[in-house]
Each structure stands twice: as C-alpha cells, then as structure tokens.
Amino acid sequence: MTDIRKLREQTQVLLEECENRLATLEVDRPQAGKSTNESIVVNQTEKTPEAKNRNRAKNRAANQAALAQLCETYPDVFSRDNVRPLKVGIQEDLIADEKLARNRVKRALASYVRSPQYLRSLQVGADRIGLDGAASGQVSEEEAVHAQEKLKAIKDQRREREKTERKEGRAEQRKQAVKAKEQRINKKLDLLLQLNNRTR
Questions:
Q1: pLDDT tens digits for 10-50?
Q2: Integer distance in angstroms from the first to the last C-alpha of the chain?
Q3: DSSP state of 76
C-alpha cells in the first residue's frame, strides 16, 4: 500500500511539473501568434518571398532564352564556351542590325556581360570583338580592374548567401528540436495521466 502511495505522490509531482511546463508554453504561444499576425499586416503591402522568387525565376528564364537566341544568331561573337570581350558600343550595332528585338538584345547582353566567365575574359590588352568577329579595340587596365572588383563582389555575395542559408538551417534545426521536446513532454504527460487513471 505504501508503494502505491509513493507512486501516486510521484505521479502527482510529475503531473504538476508537466502542467507548469504546458502553462509556460501556452503563455509563449499567444505572443508568438500576435507577432505573426502583426508581421502579416505589415507584409501585406510587400511581395511575399515566394512571389519574389517566382518573378526572379521568370526574369532569369527570359534572360537565358534571349541569350540563347543571341548565341544562335551571332555564333562567331557570342559563345558560352569561348567568351571574349565585346566591342564597346556593340549594343547599338545589334539594335541597328535588327535581327533581334531591342528588349531581347538588352536582356541577352546584360546576362552575357555580367557573367563571371565574361568578367574573367576582361584581361589587360585582350582584343575586343565586334559583330563581324574582327578585333575592335582592347581591354584597358581600368576595365580589367573593374571586372576583377565585380568578380570579387560576386564571390562575396555568394559566400554571404551560403552563410545565411547555413544560419537558417541551424534555426530550423532548433525549431525542430523544440517541437520534438514538446512532443516528448506531451507523450510523458499522456502516459502519466493514463497511469494515474489506472491507480484510481
């Protein structure tokens, strides 16, 4: 009989501890819900991250399609395998040639000249090429230095993005650990309640 009393007392202590923990969790939850509601109201005027990602993906696809068309139309000048510096003012030449629409030319050129391969091709003294494939000027030291700075900025952005992704991954792991802990507490509470109901 004394063992049953001890067991009941231990169960009662555990139940009280679980109830205190649950009460603490319930107090924290409304505040989290409130901040979520406030952030929803604030962000209603802004685009959601999903919408921004969709727009970015559409723009990227349109740029790549325009670049593919440019490479097909002028294979001697534009190539993904043999990237060479372009003549200064080649955009006007492409628009004047009228083989591609103005907006397609702008999209394609923007993608082409911002690529790391193109920036690497901008070495001091390298020949620039025109639409006919012939040399048309050379890369200056200032242009080469500018290209190197842009390459460094691209690498820095990539590193920062990877760092942010790692941080977000760790935050998600912490959330999952807290959720798993809550589930364990709930299971123990259920077991204790069942045990307590049996001993009555």
A1: 777 776 776 766 666 665 554 444 444 444 444 445 567 77
A2: 13
A3: T
